[in-house]
Design a protein that fits this description.
It is a single chain. By secondary structure, this protein is α/β, with parallel strands linked by helices. The protein has two domains: 136 residues, Aspartate Aminotransferase, domain 1; 256 residues, Type I PLP-dependent aspartate aminotransferase-like (Major domain) (Aspartate Aminotransferase, domain 2, 3-Layer(aba) Sandwich), CATH 3.40.640. Helix content is 38%, strand content 19%. The protein has 13 helices and 19 strands. It has a seven-stranded mixed sheet with strand order 6-12-11-10-9-7-8, with helices on both faces. Helix 1 runs antiparallel to helix 9. The N and C termini lie far apart (45 Å). The N terminus is likely disordered.
């Protein structure tokens, strides 16, 4: 069972034992996993749920009349209901199950935007975006003759809000923006930005991949039109994700992919599409993965997102303080409001070399451009080292990271 350990600074989560992957040694050292922004580890409850489905309930969903199919369908659709509650969507029809954030954004670009865009129209994104919230908009602009605009950032990795507001003109037909930067950890002030877009009737898509694992998200309170996120960032299996979309918008959108399960009737002279959300879910889905994602929601809600956010905020402050005390280390991304991610450079050591040396001390970090090349270009860097936190990390993890960095500096010296 999960535990909470009291500390001098308040209630510190102590969840490491819930995660089997963390209970191993790498190169003779106890693993410190600081790469959760790329993919979070899974608790035993998620692993066991997937295994139980595979062992006892595996069958295709929705159309079977036998017992196993009923069990699979109940668990699969039960996960959809859990996800609806997790982000407070108004209806389960607003929860489209996808393979992840990337598919979710492509679905909106092709099904919502492509039929509506024309030459002279604009799509607005920001300089902070992950490639998955850049490339789909490049595609749809090339397909329609529309133009993609980019809102700038400052030297701390924060959006320049005045410049963004000036770009929100009547010819902008979509604002696509990340909730939290995967490269820098910047939390964007979404409520203010969405309100500005609302004043001009501009639809808003939010890439929430880096937010959902770390804070409570209420899509009704945010007021966004679409919200996309991935299962593997939030302790669930890979190949799972969600597109939230307002029901009225989804209802007007054509299906993106054709095939089984997204239809009610098929004839050679035409097809009648299924109701929401199934018209966007063609083919056999990742049943085991979605069921596992439902278990991940149970795990997160069993702890509470507010407690997770408080734990990680305290730990991020400690991480930034300790990294700042390392000689010749430069923090990249120092926004006032951040979540769970810190990029850095150590002298002139290439991030890949640093990451390799840390790995030999059992420390797992991410190195490179983090699928955010424009961010790296802004800081005139080929890439950074990035430590990303999750609910299962501790101050001891931070201390071991900093000790390993100092050893790496000594090696290169």
């Amino acid at each position: 069972m999960s535990q909470v350990q009291a500390s001098n600074s308040g209630a510190e989560l102590n969840l490491r034992d819930d995660f089997p992957a963390l209970l191993q040694e790498i190169h003779g050292h106890e693993l410190v996993y600081l790469d959760s922004a790329a993919s979070a580890q899974q608790p035993k409850s998620v692993i066991d749920t997937v295994a139980r489905y595979q062992q006892h309930d595996h069958a295709n969903v929705h159309r079977g009349v036998h017992t196993l199919s009923h069990r699979a369908t109940e668990a699969y659709e039960g996960a959809r209901d859990k996800l609806q509650g997790f982000i407070n969507a108004r209806s389960r029809s607003e929860i489209v199950l996808t393979s992840g954030t990337t598919e979710s954004i492509n679905l909106v670009a092709q099904s919502f935007c492509r039929p509506r865009l024309k030459p002279g129209d604009k799509v607005l994104i920001t300089h902070l975006e992950h490639h998955s919230n850049i490339v789909p908009w490049q595609f749809v602009c090339e397909q329609t003759g529309a133009e993609m605009l980019v809102a700038p950032i400052d030297s701390r990795g924060q959006l320049e809000l005045d410049a963004l507001e000036q770009l929100l003109t009547d010819d902008v037909k979509m604002l696509a923006i990340g909730h939290v930067s995967n490269a820098l950890g910047t939390i964007n002030p979404l409520r203010k930005i969405i309100s500005l877009a609302r004043e001009r009737d501009i639809p808003v898509l939010v890439d929430g991949a880096q937010a959902v694992p770390h804070m409570a998200v209420d899509v009704q309170e945010l007021g966004c039109d679409f919200y996309a996120f991935s299962g593997h960032k939030m302790l669930g299996p890979t190949g799972t994700g969600v597109l939230f979309g307002k029901e009225a918008l989804l209802d007007d959108m054509p299906p993106w992919q054709g095939g089984g399960d997204m239809i009610l009737e098929v004839r050679f002279d035409g097809t009648v599409f299924n109701e929401l959300p199934y018209k966007f879910e063609a083919g056999t889905p990742n049943i085991a993965g979605v069921i596992g994602l439902g278990a991940a929601v149970d795990y997160l809600e069993g702890i509470s997102m507010d407690r997770i956010a408080a734990h990680e905020a305290t730990l991020l402050d400690y991480l930034m303080q300790q990294l700042s005390a390392v000689d010749d280390l430069r923090l990249i991304g120092t926004a006032e409001h951040k979540a769970s991610v810190q990029s850095f450079m150590l002298g002139d050591i290439h991030p890949h070399d640093l990451g390799t040396i840390l790995d030999h001390q059992g420390i797992a970090i991410r190195t490179g451009h983090h699928c955010a090349m424009p961010v790296m270009d802004f800081f005139k860097l080929p890439g950074t080292a990035r430590a990303s936190l999750a609910l299962y990390n501790s101050r001891d993890d931070v201390d071991r990271l900093c000790a390993a960095i100092r050893k790496a500096a000594a090696v290169f010296a």
